[in-house]
From TrEMBL:
Belongs to the oxygen-dependent FAD-linked oxidoreductase family. Gene3D superfamilies: 3.30.465.10. The chain crosses the membrane at residues 153-174. GO terms for molecular function: FAD binding; oxidoreductase activity. Residues 453-467 have a biased composition (Polar residues). This is FAD/FMN-containing dehydrogenase. Residues 8-177 form the FAD-binding PCMH-type domain. Coiled coil: none annotated. PANTHER family: CYTOKININ DEHYDROGENASE 6, GULONOLACTONE OXIDASE. InterPro entries: FAD-bd_PCMH (IPR016166), FAD-bd_PCMH-like_sf (IPR036318), FAD-bd_PCMH_sub2 (IPR016169), FAD-linked_Oxidoreductases_BP (IPR050432), Oxid_FAD_bind_N (IPR006094). Residues 444-467 are annotated as: Disordered.
Length: 467
């Protein structure tokens, strides 16, 4: 066992020295000892935290084991980054079927969170690309899991947030593309109606679509934004391979620079830059899929307290009104969202038991952590989502109430039944373990739920990270 000062989630709300372990220690320990596989820490909340136990880093020594350019099937260790996979397959004319907003996610993390991308309306979530994986559980038996072999464990692990065991290797299906680069259509809309009036036709004719929303705009401009749709370009030319970011935020800024004043100016410039009529251009794939990967450690811009991300999904029937209510709620509470993204989810069903995407629309908002007032706003956003019959994304969360989790995932007990008794996370303690019928009964309320954390916390050994 060792103690490391890093291994934090991307939100950086809780920064402690986390104890690390190995798969060998996991197998040698008994039920309840508390381990958790750890990828690259790109989950925003505490689903990748295990501050009362140990995390097991999966990246060291991870490698791509094989790639068949005829079939597009790749096999790799769970700790391999998606950027490493793209570096291997792009020269062969392939691309990920589903890619999230960052390529700095491990393969195991993409499976465990069943991540989604800009083409859910066509291809569903990442789990649909998974052919099989090898899962190591506490009994020491590596099990091959697929839709045909150990199917229940296969379904529980996809979207299971690492709670069913350690994914050792996985086989995924890649898709052949004419170019990794994207033929992008860009158009701004002056009100949220412009997005909802156009999106069905856009999704019917494009592989990818996403909209940036000006969360601070009011009046006749409420919900204005920029719609971007794209397809892999037939004439896209050579594609750059993944590379380290040219720019980086070298240290945590003493204050949050992404505040209402700066974001109001940025939003005006970004909206004004976008063309008023549909404009088509060839854009590099990295800028289309992973724009923030170009800036290393961009989460440090939110200052010493870190950030919260709120991602919800809600039914299509009342989506316009729900979206407007969420935007207005954040403004009413005096919060500005730097990255406000609206996408449409389709009806493609995930093989995962606990997949977040479902038919409807998903809105993502990023907020600087201002303590209790931020948590109060997030609770108010939850209430809007709950009233609309929606759900919250668990791997973006670090404060939702247990009741909100149960409303979002009423089948969570199916995952609990498949959870390895020696695997635990702060998220599961904070949500499922406070609900009835959890293995062992209702757990005692954890101090990890303190909403006014001010960016610091203690672990079992009461070791602090300097702020």
């Amino acid at each position: 066992m060792s103690v490391k000062p890093d291994h934090e989630s991307w939100g950086r709300v809780r920064r402690v020295r986390r104890r690390t372990g190995s798969t060998g220690e996991f197998l040698a320990s008994g039920p309840g000892a508390g381990f958790l596989p750890f990828g690259n820490g790109r989950s925003y909340g505490d689903s990748c935290h295990n501050d009362r136990g140990r995390i097991v880093p999966m990246q060291p020594g991870a490698r791509i084991r094989s790639f068949d350019a005829d079939t597009g099937v790749l096999e790799a260790d769970a700790g391999v980054l998606l950027s490493e996979i793209l570096m291997r397959v792009i020269p062969e004319g392939y691309f990920l079927e589903v890619t999230p907003g960052t390529a700095q996610v491990t393969l195991g993390g993409a499976i465990a969170n069943d991540v989604h991308g800009k083409n859910h309306h066509l291809r569903g979530s990442f789990g649909r690309s998974v052919r099989s994986f090898v899962l190591l559980t506490g009994d020491g038996v590596p099990r091959t899991c697929s839709p045909m072999e150990n199917p229940r464990l296969f379904a529980a692990t996809i979207g299971g947030m690492g709670l069913t065991g350690f994914i050792l290797t996985a086989r995924i299906q890649l898709m052949r593309v004419p170019s990794a680069n994207i033929r992008q259509m860009t158009q701004r809309f002056s009100h949220i109606d412009g997005y909802f009036d156009a999106i069905e036709a856009i999704d019917a004719s494009h592989e990818y679509s996403v909209a940036w929303i000006d969360q601070l705009a009011t009046g006749a401009r409420t919900g204005r934004g920029v719609l971007m749709a794209g397809d892999h370009a037939e004439d896209g030319g050579p594609a750059r391979l993944p590379r380290p970011p040219r720019l980086s935020v070298p240290f945590v800024l003493p204050v949050n620079v992404l505040n209402g004043l700066t974001l109001s100016a940025f939003n005006g410039l970004y909206y004004g830059w976008a063309p008023s009529r549909p404009t088509v251009s060839i854009v590099p794939w990295q800028g289309f899929f992973h724009p923030l990967d170009a800036i290393g450690n961009w989460n440090r811009l939110y200052g010493p307290r870190g950030l919260y991300q709120h991602q919800s999904v809600y039914p299509e029937a009342d989506a316009r009104d729900t979206t407007l209510r969420l935007l207005e709620c954040a403004r009413r509470h005096g919060h500005a969202s730097f990255l406000t993204v609206l996408k449409r989810f389709g009806a493609v069903v995930s093989p995962g038991m606990m997949s977040f995407p479902r038919p409807g629309f998903t809105l993502t908002l990023d907020f600087a952590n201002l303590g209790r007032r931020t948590v109060a706003m997030l609770d108010a956003l939850d209430d809007i989502v709950l009233a609309a019959g929606g759900a919250l994304n668990p791997y973006k969360d670090q404060r939702m109430r247990p009741s909100m989790f149960e409303a979002s995932f009423p089948n969570w007990r199916d995952l609990e039944a498949c959870r390895d008794p020696n695997i635990q996370s702060d998220f599961w303690r904070r949500t499922a373990m406070l609900l009835p019928d959890t293995r062992g009964g209702v757990a005692a309320r954890s101090e990890l739920a303190d909403p006014d954390q001010s960016g610091t916390a203690d672990n079992l050994n009461q070791m602090h990270m300097p702020v």
